Amino acid sequence: MIKHIHEIRDPIHVFIRLTTDERKVLDSRPFQRLRQIHQLAMTYLVYPGATHRRFEHSLGVMELASRVFDVITADANIHEKARYILPPDQKKDYWKSILRMAALCHDLGHLPFSHAAEEELLPDGWSHERMTAEIIRSNEMEKIWREVTPPLRSEEIIKVALGAKEAKKLKLELKDWEAILSEIIVGDTFGVDRMDYLLRDSLHAGVIYGKFDHYRLIDTLRILPKSSGAEDSTEPTLGLTAGGVQSAEALLWARYFMYSQVYFHPVRRIYDIHLQDFLQKWLKDGRFSTKMEDYLEMTDSEVIVEMRKAALESTHAAHIYAKRIIDREHFKVLYELTPDDRNINPNAAKAVYDAACEKYGKDSVRRDKYTQKGGRQTFPVLHRGKILQSTELSGTLSKIPVVATDFVFIDREQLDAAEKWLKKEFDDIIKPKGEID
Fold first, then answer.
1. Residue 356 sits in the same domain as residue 235
2. CB atoms within 10 A of CB 71
3. Is this model's pTM higher than 0.90 or not?
4. What is the pairing mode between strands 386-389 and 365-371?
5. Model confidence pLDDT, tens digit, residues 238-259
6. CB contact set of 103 (below 8 Å; sequence gap of 6+)
7. Is the peptide bond before 150 cis (omega within 30 degrees of 0)?
8. What CATH number corresponds to the domain at position 132?
9. Which candidate among 129, 143, 324, 411 keeps its CA 20 to 30 Å from the CA of 171?
10. CATH number of the domain that residue 358 is part of
């Protein structure tokens, strides 16, 4: 007997079920490549359990996206002002298939080690989102879209997988319904991409920071007008019933804690920088090729093999950078920007970095400045028949901080001398230039 539903065990969602058509995507070369792309780059060098891959994350995103679709399209859950955007009943299965395929494919274009130094390692005008689009419309994937039942259009999968902002760069415009579907996957607050990675990263890193009640959150999701009233926006978006507000608070706090405790861990961040340095020295012209065959053949495995080779060969162009990773000789934190220092000089970290480069040389110093992106805290809430804003019902949401880091790292061999130097010169270094005597 031919099996039409395939089950995959998952530590987060227990069972993930796929149709035979979806199994064709899973078995494709672009999707199987994700088995060799770490979800959290080299975080496993700090949190040893964080060896999970984009492969299982993409399956999890599909599972959650499917659950959200079923909730928001259930007749009893449809708000009267959002009903107009829903497709006719005979098209619901088609759009659910588009959503599930888009969720499966949303990460196909990731570089080796995911987000580490993406902007510096791709040619101008390229991103992993653009590469995702190229893969979805490639000959291999187009063959699948034509063969599934019903046949699917790759441009619709691309739009839903990437969202309005990225699709616009590809000159693709989303209709209201497509925008809702893309929000299910990549939405700034309730995107299931974020839900899955918080839960999954937390589990594999061995921390509890990323946990929240995603079951309750999904059950309370609704398509709602952004706000109500005669002059307010009636543009549809994902919101909640009032019973889900605390779950949304937990989601956003989980995101804050994962950023502050895991994603922005200074040792994790410096390994990203050392990896970038290695790749820029090893890759031709310091960039990944965007030719389809080259791209699909490049995974973490190829990078690790070359890195181990480079660490052993002193004549290798990237020897020193590979050795810092393989032998765990990473740079150490010399300085971290504090609120007090920022009050004296908002550019204090840059001032320390510039002074350290002048003192010890640029090759011995690195700076890492990053601010957490996204995490919209204002969204519509259906409360006793009225549309309110989340901040009207929650005093917690506005208090969630934005995580920002600004580190200066230095070669560990220079650390002791550099710390003594910085302690002595610090006040003069961070003075705004106009105040320096």
1. no
2. 14
3. yes
4. unpaired
5. 999 999 999 999 999 999 999 9
6. 58, 61, 62, 64, 65, 66, 161, 185, 192
7. yes
8. 1.10.3210.10
9. 143
10. 3.30.70.1370
Last residue of a domain, one of 267, 296, 323: 267
The residue written with tokens 């590469």 in the block is 131
User: In this structure, how many other beta carbons lie within 10 angstroms of the beta carbon of residue 92?
Assistant: 14
* Domain co-membership, 247 together with 336: no
Tokens of 364: 């011995």
Token code pair at residue 77: 């859950």
Residue range of the domain that includes 53: 5-267
How far is Cα 423 from Cα 437, in angstroms, rounded to an integer?
A: 19
Q: What is the DSSP letter of 20?
A: H
- Residue 232 DSSP SS3: coil
CA 350/CA 218 separation, integer angstroms: 43
Per-residue pLDDT reduced to its tens digit, 193-236: 999 999 999 999 999 999 999 999 999 999 999 875 545 567 89
- Run of H or E including 339: helix 339-344
| Residue appearing with tokens 């010890």 | 360
Cα separation of 268 and 43, whole Å? 5
- Output the DSSP codes for 49-60: T---BHHHHHHH
What is the domain count for the chain? Answer: 2
Sign of CA dihedral 82, 87, 90, 93: negative
If one counts every other C-beta atom within 10 angstroms of the C-beta of residue 74, the result is 10
- Identify any residues that bridge with 371 across adjacent strands, giving them in sequence order: 404
Length of the chain: 437
